[in-house]
Amino acid sequence: MATDWLVTGAGGQLGSVLLRLLARRGAAAVGTVTDKGPRPDVGESIPIDLTDRRALEPLVRRLRPQFIIHTAAITNVNDAYRHPDRARLVNCETSCLINELAAELGARLVFTSTDLVFGGGEAPYRETDPTSPKSIYGATKVEAENALGDSPNAIILRLPLMYGVPAVDRPTTFMNQVRAMLDRRELTLFGDEYRTPIWLEDAARACVDVAQRDISGILHAGGPQRLSRLQMGELTAKALGVSDARIRSISQCEIDAPEPRPADVSLESSRFESLMRRPPGIPMHEALMDIAEELNVAS
């Protein structure tokens, strides 16, 4: 069974939307999911432990994809802190193996990385800026980036915080916040933590479009706005029509976290816009109109 596209982590928020996007475009695509995790709503998925080399190698060789979008990772910062060896195995070592297999097959690889490779003190960040992660999660992504950086078949696509409705039944930070707003439950959001958030649909399109271009190295695909977590919440509440949302602003210093949180990891994405002749994504208030409609919520 051969396929054109292989999406790892199809049970995650980005991977599930990617598989749905490829299905809408009529592409032959297969996703991988964890044995016990959720499956995406659309598309074909195969359960596998990606850290099991004896299972992964024959699967990829049998599928012989032209394009691999590798989104599978331990992305929860707290999980990576509690299980650093597991985080390194999944985020770095498995990514290196997938890169080797992509090179063997002559496949294009998009490795999705994160804005959390940066320390947060010198934003906005360009692709050429030095990395300085404050978390184990960010450090494992940097290690993978360094290992893949010289691969001519691979593109490292750094993505920011993502929001939107996943194409899979799983909890996400954004959807948990949406439910809290609709239920009029209190939300505490950082007023002093800044990102360049991107809609899941835009992030998926960026992955697919970049895969089909002859680009290597590192590329940023951040959203067009620098927003605090608080501003993101306020925009969401407005789009949902929740005028009495119980949103309370807090500061990073009020939270006792095991690892420091970067204050501002905004991405500068002009290289993407120059190469692709379009920005990576649309403003959040515009995306939220589609999100509200998808959720059947009148603003």
The major beta sheet can be summarized as:
7 strands, parallel
Strand content: 15-25%
Low-confidence stretches: none
Main sheet strand line-up: 3-2-1-4-5-6-11
- Please count the beta strands (DSSP E, at least 2 residues each): 13
The CATH superfamily name is: NAD(P)-binding Rossmann-like Domain
Named CATH topology: Rossmann fold
SSE arrangement:
Elements: E1 5-8, H1 13-24, E2 29-33, E3 44-47, H2 53-63, E4 67-70, H3 77-82, H4 84-105, E5 108-114, H5 136-148, E6 154-159, E7 162-163, H6 173-182, E8 187-190, E9 194-195, E10 198-199, H7 200-211, E11 217-220, E12 227-228, H8 229-240, E13 247-250, H9 270-276, H10 284-294
Parallel strand pairs: 1-2, 1-4, 2-3, 4-5, 5-6, 6-11, 7-10, 8-13
Antiparallel strand pairs: 9-12
Helix pairs in contact: 1-7, 2-4, 4-5, 6-8, 8-10
Keywords:
Rossmann fold; 10 helices; single chain; 299 residues; alpha/beta
Write up what this structure looks like.
The protein is built from ten helices and 13 strands. It is α/β, with parallel strands linked by helices and 299 residues long. The chain has a single domain (5-171, 198-225, 267-281), classed as Rossmann fold (3-Layer(aba) Sandwich). α2 (53-63) packs parallel to α4 (84-105), α6 (173-182) crosses α8 (229-240) and α8 packs across α10. The longest helix is centred in the first third of the chain and has 22 residues, at 84-105. The model has no long low-confidence stretch (mean pLDDT 96).
